[in-house]
């Protein structure tokens, strides 16, 4: 599927996919390389998985270096979901049905083919389910270690992984037949290393351990206090999230999962249902209290934004629907698995057009103007930019898509990822504004710095303006008077 989406040029439609890819590249390709290039809002594991591949320029420029790790995690998620369902329901056909319902979903297939984090988290969650169920049966330290590592991986991938941890620790305390406290403590210590590391990383980089939650790049800051449906309203929060989940999973799977939940409860699969439901609960809570809006085409304002969060319910729905197979007699279990898999995936088989894939449609429609602007800027600069002359640029890892397409090292660009030197340049462009090119979003601080530099005799001439519907104008300037140097000097160092 990675090849399918790559051949159509769809790998980097999401702005976040572009940003994840370039954030990982900046860890080594930057004037200030290091782990601080990732955050603070984004957790590190997906970027670290991409890192070895992104050292290859071709894999970076094509986006494939960021797509391969999620694809491998997707395979792992399907295998762990199969193994967990097989163990819980004592039925290999039920396991196959769960894996098929997960793997045949086109929204999941798209997310696992691009540099996003959902497939990585799905693998961690499915592994935690498998090892936790295995621990109840075997009481083995190997299963406990596997569960701890899976929970650690989830907590370093998405924040719903943090929400899962106390429930999982309580499960291990209850499931342990002996040494309950030791098992719960061992799991908690291993899994808790992820949040502890990230709190320390945020404090080390920004001075605020909670910068990911309340800093200038957090979801709360991006929302900016603007109201949205579901805020402080549990009923609306549930309505918007459940609608997003149904659109991502497909309506037929939602019906099968509702029936299958009763079958799973009859099989006393309480813990698997609870564990797999926790990410969805987290998003309903975030909608209500966490400044995290979700917009879906079916509800006001009839647009798509963060609809992909609904995919977090897919493992739960696939597992619940697979419980129907466990009700079938052993001789009919194989046929039942095929019927359940076809029933859940049948909606997508009946509507194969990519326009029906909610997550892909959201990525495409929301990024048209952005992609057009970045492509135009890359085409212009490719004809005029001289390697090594350097440029100051608006945006962070999103605008880096321009330079990725051009194939120039990100260390030749100077942007907000430079932290203190960046803010010094914006404040005193008369001292630090020596880059030959400036690529700015009109009206932002870099645009203001270009105008302020003119007062000190550092003049930039406007070479191109790029206008696209629903997107801020992009202006490209070239230095015509001032301290121009044929080679880009080093950025001002951090004190």
Keywords:
mainly alpha; 495 residues; five-stranded mixed β-sheet; 23 helices; 5% strand
Description:
With 495 residues, this protein is mainly alpha-helical. It has a domain at 38-352. 62% of the residues lie in helices and 5% in strands. It has helices spanning 2-7, 15-26, 45-54, 57-62, 64-89, 92-103, 106-111, 118-138, 141-155, 160-175, 180-206, 211-214, 219-223, 234-249, 251-266, 270-289, 314-326, 333-350, 358-384, 400-406, 420-427, 429-432, 445-454, and strands at 391-393, 413-414, 437-441, 459-466, 474-481. The protein has a five-stranded mixed sheet.
Query: What percent of residues are in strands?
Result: 5-15%
Order of helices and strands: HHHHHHHHHHHHHHHHHHHEHEHHEHEE
Overall residue-averaged pLDDT value: 93
Helix content: 55-70%
Write down how many β-strands occur, each being a DSSP E stretch of 2 or more residues: 5
How many helices? The count is 23
Strand-pairing-aware structural class: mainly alpha
Low-confidence stretches: 485-495
Q: Order of strands in the sheet with the most strands?
A: 2-1-3-5-4
Radius of gyration: 24 Å
* Termini Cα gap: 47 Å
- What does the main sheet amount to? 5 strands, mixed
Shape, per Cα inertia axes = elongated
Secondary structure elements and their pairing?
Blueprint (H helix, E strand, L loop, with lengths): L1 H6 L7 H12 L18 H10 L2 H6 L1 H26 L2 H12 L2 H6 L6 H21 L2 H15 L4 H16 L4 H27 L4 H4 L4 H5 L10 H16 L1 H16 L3 H20 L24 H13 L6 H18 L7 H27 L6 E3 L6 H7 L6 E2 L5 H8 L1 H4 L4 E5 L3 H10 L4 E8 L7 E8 L14
Parallel strand pairs: 1-2, 1-3
Antiparallel strand pairs: 3-5, 4-5
């Amino acid at each position: 599927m990675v090849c399918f989406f790559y051949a159509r040029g769809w790998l980097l439609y999401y702005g976040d996919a572009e940003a994840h890819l370039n954030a990982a590249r900046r860890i080594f390709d930057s004037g200030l390389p290091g782990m601080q290039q990732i955050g603070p809002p984004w957790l590190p594991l997906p970027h670290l998985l991409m890192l070895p591949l992104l050292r290859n320029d071709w894999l970076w420029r094509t986006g494939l270096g960021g797509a391969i790790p999620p694809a491998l995690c997707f395979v792992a998620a399907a295998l762990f979901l199969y193994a967990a369902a097989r163990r819980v329901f004592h039925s290999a056909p039920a396991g196959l049905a769960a894996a098929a319902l997960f793997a045949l979903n086109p929204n999941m297939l798209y997310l696992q083919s691009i540099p996003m984090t959902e497939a990585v988290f799905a693998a961690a969650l499915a592994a935690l389910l498998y090892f936790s169920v295995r621990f109840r049966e075997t009481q083995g330290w190997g299963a406990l270690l596997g569960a701890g590592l899976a929970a650690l991986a989830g907590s370093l991938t998405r924040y719903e992984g943090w929400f899962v941890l106390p429930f999982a620790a309580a499960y291990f305390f209850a499931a342990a037949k002996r040494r309950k406290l030791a098992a719960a403590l061992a799991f908690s210590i291993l899994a808790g290393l992820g949040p502890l590391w990230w709190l320390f990383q945020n404090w080390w980089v920004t001075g605020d351990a909670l910068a990911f939650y309340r800093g200038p790049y957090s979801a709360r800051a991006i929302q900016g206090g603007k109201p949205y449906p579901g805020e402080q309203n549990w009923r609306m929060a549930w309505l918007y999230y459940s609608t997003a989940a149904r659109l991502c999973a497909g309506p037929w799977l939602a019906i099968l999962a509702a029936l299958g939940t009763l079958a799973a409860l009859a099989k006393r699969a309480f813990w698997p249902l609870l564990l797999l439901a926790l990410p969805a609960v987290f998003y309903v809570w975030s909608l209500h209290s966490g400044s995290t809006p979700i917009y879906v085409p079916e509800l006001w304002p009839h647009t798509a934004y963060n609809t992909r969060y609904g995919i977090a319910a897919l493992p739960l729905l696939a597992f619940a629907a697979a419980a129907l197979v466990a009700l079938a007699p052993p001789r009919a279990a194989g046929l039942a698995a095929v019927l359940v898999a076809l029933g859940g995936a049948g909606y997508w088989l009946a509507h194969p057009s990519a326009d029906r894939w909610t997550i892909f449609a959201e990525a495409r429609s929301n990024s048209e103007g952005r992609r057009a602007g970045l492509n135009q800027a890359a085409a212009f600069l490719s004809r005029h930019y001289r390697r090594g002359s350097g440029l100051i640029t608006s945006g962070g890892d999103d605008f880096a898509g321009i330079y990725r397409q051009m194939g120039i090292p990100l260390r030749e660009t100077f942007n907000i990822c430079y932290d203190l030197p960046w803010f010094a340049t914006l404040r005193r462009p008369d001292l630090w504004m020596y880059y030959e090119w400036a690529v700015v979003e009109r009206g932002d601080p870099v645009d203001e710095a270009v105008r302020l530099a003119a007062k000190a005799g550092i003049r930039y001439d406007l070479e191109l303006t790029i206008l696209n519907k629903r997107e801020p104008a992009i202006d490209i300037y070239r230095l015509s008077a001032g301290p121009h140097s044929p080679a880009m000097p080093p950025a001002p160092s951090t004190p």
